[in-house]
Structures are given as C-alpha cells and as structure tokens.
Design a protein that fits this description.
The chain is an all-alpha fold. 66% of the residues lie in helices and 0% in strands.
C-alpha cells in the first residue's frame, strides 16, 4: 500500500463546520488507529474476563474457546463467497464501463464524494461484497478525473455501505440466517424458529429506516468533504491509479481453447440458472423464503461467470479477489472462540436472564441496540456476532413480548455502526485503494457520532408499531 506524504497544513481554518471536524479526526486516526486483528484478539480476552467475572471456571472457558475454534468454518466460507461473488460481478467489463460513466457525473470534489456514498449504500443493500469493490473502483476512477478530491473522505464514503445500510438489505447475514433452517445452530432454532424475510428485511419499518440512514449518510459526506486546498489526494498518498490490463493474453496452446471459449460458461450457467429459478419458484413459503445465504451466493457466482463470459477471465477475477479474503479466513476462528465461551458455558443463560431483568417491553429495543453496537467493536462480523448474541437476545425478546423479526432488524441497524471505526471489513477496499485503515477511520468516527443517536431512536420508535408474534418452528 502506498505511504502518504507528510501531512501539510493547508490552512484548515478556512474550512467550516463538519469539514473542519472531519479533517481533525482524519489526522488523529492516521496516527493512533491499530490493525484490525487487534480488535478480534481484544474480543477474546474481554469475553474471557467477563466470563470469569460472571463466575465461570477459567479452564472451562479455555476449553470451550479451543473446542469451538473451527465451529464457524462453513459460515466463514459463506462470507468468503460473498466477497468473491461481489468482486467477480463488480469487476466484470460491463460494470467497469458503468463505473466510468458514473465518474463523469460529478463536477466538484464534494459531489464526487457524495455520489460514491450514494452508490456504496445502495449497492450494499444488494451485496456488501459488491459494494466494497464497485465503490472502490469508482473512487479510483474519480480520483483520476476530479482534481482536489480528498482520497480519505472518498475512501470512507466507499465503505459506508458496510457501516450503515448493508445489514438492512439482502446481504444481511443475520436475516438470511434466521430465514434458513439448514444454517441455523439447532440451539437457536429451538428458541426462535424460522423468521422469514417478510418479517425482517421487508417490513416497512425496516425500509423506512434504511431510507433515512442513507439520506443522512450522503448529506454528511457532502458537507464534511474538505475543499481542494485542504484535501489529501491520491497523489499525496503516492497511489498509482493506473489499472492493470483488462484484455486477456493471447492463447498459445491448443489445450487452452476451452479456457478462452464461452461454451462451458454457457452450459454451466444454464444449469445453475435453471436450479436457481426452480428453487425460487417451487419454495412452499414463496421466493423470498428460498432466498437464503447459499442461494444468494450462488446467484452472484453464476452472474459473475456470465458477465466475465470466458472461464479464463472469470478465474483471473477470482484470483485477484482472493487476497481480500485473508482477513476473514484468519479472524473468524477467533470469533468462534468467543461464540464457544458464551454458548458452551453458562454465560449465555446468565446474559439472557440479565437482559430480561434489565429491560421491559418498551426499553428492550434500546438495550439490544446499545449491546449489539458495543459487541460489534470486538466482533465486526454481522453473521458470526449474531450467532454469538442471538440465543440470549431472542430468549429475552420472547420474555418481553417484542416482535422477533424487528429484534433482528434492531440488531442489523445497530451492529453496523461499529464497522465505521472497526477496520476489519475495510480490508478488501484497502487493497483496491492502496491506503491504510487508519487513513479512513477519522471520517468514520464523524459518521458514527451523528448516525448512532438516529439509529437508536429509530430502533426504539418503530418497535412500538409492531406486535409480538410467537416463534414459527
């Protein structure tokens, strides 16, 4: 990754309001922010200490942590495939042409950063993996075209889908998990049963929350963007903005014919496409119920194959994406340790009783929102954290007679907030932008400070509009 030049004071006193605050926070984070792995390790230590403080035996905690180290392997691969699927679609030639066209729209650095934020947020509702790649490529294209665009502010705008909207859309790991009996841990299914997407993502309350948060996020990006005089551009960071060649090298051997021919792609895509259509069409509970995480990933992989057309091009796109999955593969086992220490001991039941005792029907939504956001600092994965949190959260929700689908959405809205400062999911984006997490987090802090009160209020307010429905098993 490129190393930035020394920060130069261009006279930030000429900026006003959010722009001055954003610049100050960005400069602070460049100096003080740690590596993403630190957060995962802190989470393990913190939960271990909490377990001991709650009366759990240290040796039992350690055994459960080690025993569950590989528990999330299937889910880890699902998350890796979300990244791969998003990348192969976003990097296809037709998508790159769309990115170039979009990059001609803004005429000022502020407008450019706002457009990045808008597309990052909207695309994240479909796929957070595609949002990161699509938005990252858009930032690079805009950096070439729009002079004076702050590379840090634009980079954070490209990341906003992960920090604001992704979990309220179709890429929500928690909502998809709750709608898919096959991927739910049996202990969780026994508590909550299956919750279809019509009771989570497609509630009007959820759609309204997403619209409000997207509007606020784009507005913050626009007004917090520094002027060209105070901007740190890609050039200041020493970033090479040239793209690798997109054309395939010439075929040199007869054995390479099938690699360059679309024949196999057409046949395999036809088979997979037929299966996907049938799975959606014949689902007893309707198409939305069939849209689980496996089907969702398969749709993106199939579309990626079709858009790249030739196996050689598709394989190259996958190879380009693999380095971006390294952080997921390394850190998820540590989250599984946390899961083991909570679920494999009496800590889960104690937390459930604590939640039920500290809350009422009216205050429970706020408690879940605060807790989910706080835990997200140490476990930045919406899916693996939900597996950790769901057993006792759903037990307490039933005790307090709170709509179970909205509890999932409270979790989704609140758990995204710490992603704004936890750099774990920035890793694929950072690989594209060639900068470090600490270069972006300052603007993430600014978004967090403004967004958090709004999220907590909406979680509490909309909970009052929904009644309790018993679990469906």
């Amino acid at each position: 990754m490129g190393q930035p030049k020394a920060a130069v004071d261009h006279g930030t006193t000429t900026e006003t309001g959010l722009a001055r605050v954003g610049i100050a926070l960005a400069n602070w984070s460049e100096r003080w922010f740690p590596d993403p792995l630190v957060f995962a390790l802190l989470g393990v230590v913190t939960v271990f200490l909490i377990g001991m403080a709650a009366g759990e035996d240290a040796s039992t905690l350690a055994i459960q942590a080690g025993k569950n180290f590989w528990t999330l392997v299937p889910f880890t691969m699902q998350m890796v495939m979300v990244i791969v699927g998003g990348y192969v679609v976003a990097s296809a030639p037709i998508m790159r042409r769309s990115i170039k066209k979009i990059s001609t729209l803004p005429q000022s650095p502020r407008a450019a950063i706002a457009i990045v934020a808008l597309f990052a947020l909207l695309v994240s509702m479909i796929s957070w993996g595609m949002s990161l790649i699509f938005s990252g490529l858009l930032v690079r294209e805009l950096a070439r075209r729009v002079k004076g665009m702050d590379y840090r502010a634009a980079g954070l705008a490209a990341y906003l889908g992960i920090g604001v909207a992704w979990a309220l859309g179709l890429s929500s790991s928690a909502a998809m998990l709750m709608a898919t009996k096959a991927t739910m841990p049996p202990a969780l299914f026994a508590i909550s049963g299956v919750i279809p997407l019509t009771q989570t993502l497609f509630l009007w309350q959820s759609l309204a929350t997403a619209a409000i948060l997207i509007t606020i996020s784009v507005a913050i990006c626009f007004f917090a963007a520094p002027t060209p005089e105070n901007a740190r551009t890609a050039e200041d960071f020493g970033v090479d903005l040239s793209d690798p060649p997109q054309e395939l090298e010439r075929r040199t051997r007869p054995g390479e014919w099938l690699e360059y021919s679309p024949l196999l792609t057409i046949l395999v895509v036809s088979v997979l496409g037929f299966y996907i259509v049938q799975a959606l069409r014949t689902s007893p509970q309707g198409a939305l119920a069939a849209l689980d995480l496996n089907t969702y990933n398969l749709m993106f992989i199939t579309l990626g194959m079709l858009l790249h057309w030739r196996p050689k091009r598709f394989l190259r796109a996958v190879a380009d994406c693999i380095p971006a999955t390294g952080g997921v593969l390394l850190q998820f086992p540590f989250y599984a340790m946390i899961f083991g220490m909570i679920v494999g001991t009496g800590l889960s039941e104690k937390l459930a009783h604590l939640f039920a005792r500290l809350s009422t029907h009216d205050t429970y939504p706020l408690l879940v929102a605060f807790y989910s956001a706080g835990l997200g600092v140490f476990i930045p994965s919406g899916g693996s954290k939900w597996i950790v949190e769901a057993p006792y959260v759903m037990q307490a929700a039933i005790a307090n007679q709170v709509h179970l689908g909205w509890v999932v959405q409270i979790y989704n809205a609140a758990e995204a907030l710490p992603n704004l400062i936890n750099p774990f999911w920035m890793l694929p984006l950072l690989g594209l932008l060639k900068i470090r997490a600490r270069d972006l987090v300052g603007y993430g802090i600014l978004q967090l400070v403004i967004q958090a009160p709004v999220v907590f209020f909406l979680c509490w307010f909309f909970a009052r509009t929904l009644g309790f429905e018993p679990p469906v098993k």
